[in-house]
Design a protein that fits this description.
It contains five helices and eleven strands; from the N terminus they run ααββααβββββαββββ. The protein is of the alpha+beta class. It has a four-stranded antiparallel sheet with strand order 2-1-3-4. Strands 6-5-8-9 form a four-stranded antiparallel sheet, with no helix packed on it. Strands 7-10-11 form a three-stranded antiparallel sheet, covered by helices on one side. Helix 1 (about 5-50) packs across helix 2. The termini are far apart. Residues about 80-85 and about 115-135 have low confidence and may be disordered.
């Protein structure tokens, strides 16, 4: 006579595997649906914001009223979670890390200078209504150049040290390395999109997903150097545990559904319709 557990257990396991497979397929479908919904919502909102000055003015006015308390609460949450606070609008910040050091951490040199924050509110409203950029581009680029010179000095002090210059001037980010050419930077959005950016390290059991804000997708921006990758890891609120050293690999899927793999020695420079893979180490 066959023992009870021997004839009962196989059908139970088969049923559990079917249920698990069904849940996984539903989860993947839901993920793709949410991603498509997010993309359509973003493009819809971005269209109305950019095309209609009245909507842009109302949005900016509401944001100016609620920005400070939201930033304050965000700062409290990030500090409590040991997260860094991204640069304030119209600022230049230098970050660096060393891939060869044990337990590599991100070091923030600090804001080089802030721009535009002290401008009267109605001057910014007038600039938005007239659809003109604020006239601090020259000063900002000058400070970025100064930060890049300081970054070259920092990078030369220690082998394996990567330096990132991160600047914000709404709505875009400037992301450079000390070797970047400022002349290649344009106020032009890149048509490149990254659907998936996955970080994996030999010391981790599972990979984690990184989010790249669309405001970073500008021609000339330098993405995925080690300091930038570590900055992304520290910015993600849902990532609480990770291993960061030179043994990581990034798996990226672009808008052409092409998959590329970047080691810690490689990075990308955005072009208008494509990107270049470069090596820094």
């Amino acid at each position: 006579m066959i023992p009870f557990h021997k004839w009962l257990w196989p059908p139970i396991m088969e049923s559990m595997e079917r249920v698990d497979s069904w849940i996984e397929s539903v989860g993947i479908d839901a993920l793709f649906f949410m991603n498509r919904t997010k993309i359509h919502t973003y493009h819809w909102c971005n269209y109305y914001y950019t095309q209609f000055p009245v909507i842009r003015l109302i949005t900016d006015t509401v944001w100016s009223v609620f920005a400070f308390p939201m930033q304050f609460l965000g700062a409290v949450m990030k500090v409590s979670m040991y997260r860094r606070i991204e640069p304030a609008d119209s600022s230049v910040t230098i970050y660096h890390t060393n891939l060869f050091a044990p337990n590599s951490r991100l070091v923030e040199v600090g804001n080089v200078k802030n721009y535009g924050d002290a401008k009267p509110f109605w001057m910014r409203v007038a600039a938005h209504m007239s659809n003109k950029k604020e006239h601090d581009d020259v000063a900002l680029m000058g400070e970025i150049e100064s930060a890049m010179n300081a970054g070259k000095t920092l990078a030369s002090l220690e082998e394996g040290r990567d330096v990132m210059i991160l600047a914000r001037q709404n709505p875009r980010y400037y992301i450079f390395s000390p070797e970047s050419c400022l002349n290649s930077s344009k106020s032009t959005r890149s048509n490149v999109e990254f659907f998936v950016v996955q970080y994996m390290n030999d010391g981790m059991k599972t990979a984690v997903q990184l989010h790249i804000p669309s405001q970073m997708m500008y021609v000339g921006n330098v993405l995925f150097r080690p300091a930038f990758v570590l900055w992304l890891l520290e910015q993600e609120p849902l990532i609480t545990e990770y291993v960061f050293d030179r043994n990581y690999v990034l798996t990226i899927m672009d808008q052409n559904i092409e998959e590329i793999h970047l080691s810690s020695e490689q990075y990308l420079v955005l072009g208008e319709d494509d990107y270049m893979v470069k090596k820094w180490l």
